Amino acid sequence: MLLIVLLAACAPNSGILSGGNWVSGGLAHQHIRALAVDANNPQNIYAGDEQGTVFVSADGGEHWTQYSSGLPASDPIHALSLDIPGKKLFAATGKGLFVSTDRARHWSVVPHLPPGSFTALAFDVEEPSLIFAGTATHGVFISNNDGASWRAVSNGLPSSAVINSLVVDPGHHQLWAATSAGVYRASDKAALWQPFNTGLPAGIVVNTVQPTAPSGGAQNLVYAGTNRGFFLSQDLGAHWSRGKENLSGTSVYCILIDFRSANATTVYIGTDVGAFRSDDSGQTWGAIATGLPKNQPVYALELGAQNYAQLFAAANDIYLYPGSGGGFDGTRILTIIIIVAFFFLLYYVTRRNQLKRAGPRRPQQPPAGAPQSEPTPPSQPKKP
């Protein structure tokens, strides 16, 4: 039985060593800030850190290789994203926009863009050659030819607004921007931006905005992650409100809608105090699992690996849920020791009781030199 228990503990997605909890992906102290998953092969995972290094895994987070050739040294990577065909990987950094065509091994700066900090990327699945890039000081840029040329599309945006994230809603032909001045929306060509902030507190910083329709959710439902918690809108941003549980004291850095769940009602968020999950479209929240360091910020979340079976979290490491063979949770060593000790004690007690019940089995031998008794002859039958 002990052997069965220990074998179960070593299973890659279950048991004592990993299953059901977060485990480290083996990039401790790397300060990961951006994640990207290859839609053509979700085993390919990309992670960018605040020192200008990109880590690549070709086996769903089991092993990682780091690359930085061509990227500015010691410069944060704010966003990573593959284009729609999956042939180019873009990195938005503090010193410009960069592109790689060989899976992050080598990088080159994207031409025809102003120098400065690039913060966000978005692509349109209905127009694969269309790219949007957001910046910290220059608004939004658009390319209609896969990044060969660019033009500014910031009409209606506050000149001082930092673009924290961009997302395309192809079904509604809309482009959303989360900014330091609130939520803005434009047509999918970004001809004119308009604010959508009714119900949001004044002076709020919006870190991310996510319509649910592209992931299979309700058509008019939109989520916003801010420096004052989580907000949702049931009417495409016309009005905003909080859910049943107030997260006003939390900064929400990223939102991931689980396209695997029924009607995309499961939502994950990364915050300044960890990662959380909602199964009712953002109304209530709970912990995902144990294994993440307490109160550690989570900056990005992605689903990846085979069949999109794992959730990846970017923190001061990469964490995988549910845990796989890619990492080992040292806190479970105590559990293993307790189980081994329990079975050893059970065996000891059981063996001792068996010996007590059995008692002595061999007959006692007479002392040395004692006379041996003669065997008693068999009795004769009486004569009639």
Q: What report would you give on this structure?
A:
- The chain has two domains: 1-17 and 331-354, no CATH class; 22-328, YVTN repeat-like/Quinoprotein amine dehydrogenase (Methylamine Dehydrogenase, Chain H).
- Residues 1-18 and 325-332 have low confidence and may be disordered.
- It is built from two helices and 27 strands.
- The relative contact order is 0.14.
- The protein is mainly beta and 384 residues long.
- It has helices at 2-9, 333-358; strands at residues 23-24, 32-37, 45-49, 54-57, 65-67, 77-82, 89-93, 96-100, 108-109, 118-124, 127-135, 140-143, 151-152, 163-169, 174-179, 182-187, 194-195, 206-211, 222-226, 229-233, 252-257, 267-271, 274-278, 286-287, 300-304, 310-314, 318-321.
> Main beta sheet: strand number and arrangement?
4 strands, antiparallel
Output the CATH homologous superfamily of the largest domain. YVTN repeat-like/Quinoprotein amine dehydrogenase
Strand content: 25-35%
List the quaternary state of the chains.
single chain
Shape: globular
Q: Portion of residues in helices?
A: under 10%
* Secondary structural class: mainly beta
